[in-house]
Amino acid sequence: MTINSIKIVLLIFVSGNFLSCNGQVKSEHKQAETKTLEIGKEVSELDNNIWKIFQDSKGKYWFGSNGNGIYYLDGSQLKLFTTIDGLVNNTIRGIQEDVDGNIYIETPEGISKFDGKQFTTLKAIKSSYNQWKLNPTDLWFGYNVKDLYRYDGDSLFQLKLPRKDLKKAFGIDTLISFNRDNPYAVFGVNKDKDGNIWFGTVVAGAFRYDGKSFLWFDEKELSILPDGRAGGVRSMIQDKNGYFWLSNFYYKYKINPNLPKGYEKIKAVDLPKGIAKLWVWNSSTNSYKQKMDDKILGFNAGITDKEGNLWMTMYGGGVWKYDGKILSNLEIKSDKEYVLSLCICQDNNGTIWLGTENDGVYKQNGDKFEKFKLKK
Fold it and tell me: What CATH superfamily classification does 3-371 receive?
């Protein structure tokens, strides 16, 4: 994957948990900027550019687009919500839910809360490090690419990750060579099975927070590679053996307090040769072209399914499944020349869904994925 194609997907955020489309926590909420409107309009189809998919506790589906608002699917009825209805911004970067059924929608301009009737906008409070806490009811956001936000049900706290010596760790002057404004920009937020929160960054590696201290993963494959590629750590998933996969197929990591770094790193998987067909941007022709890449770098979204298998999407490289032994590529059945897959989730029935940048939503059907179309 080239730098040009990487740039297209660097703003992907992964919010929620490791296991499914769902992520509920309990909290009480204060509202701000309330707008009482007759909201939403019925539409007949989804946008082609879907970055987030979420199934709520009532079994309804939410589809977040890249600029055209958020869709709500209830059976065969599809509704579209936009800024006209009180949504803070139409570009969707994350969807979460609390146990009270309130939906929280991340955008580059802030977070909207939907209580089933109306949208309200959460107000952020700039916080010092002493506001770092880890409660089971907290919601975490990284919507503006610069900082982190923790919502405790009453206040939305703006936080910063601990600053490290990136030049010493990665052997490069990260601030100069990539993302001068903020190499700590958060691209992924995930919670593991033990309740610890993980943060993936653009080039500053990954962080794990257990409520008391941070564990920093300062491995070079999590920053800028020697050939200039920098995909960012956008997805952190845990396999059935307790290893964490941090947006790359090269290595997997396991927490081990007895080791100097606090974790161990081993080879993740034998990479298949000659079967990674990637679509990359050709700046000279302003179009995509296909190339074969034996060096499969990483995935931009991933989940652990109910059986413990790992599922991962590669931009322009399809869907990958790892069952603990074999890494295999699954077919995306489409009439298009290429499908640029972005997000992935598993619903309550065990079905896996994909959101794409150029061809809407795909739904699992056996060992392949087919275009999802609304039943009329």
Answer: YVTN repeat-like/Quinoprotein amine dehydrogenase (2.130.10.10)
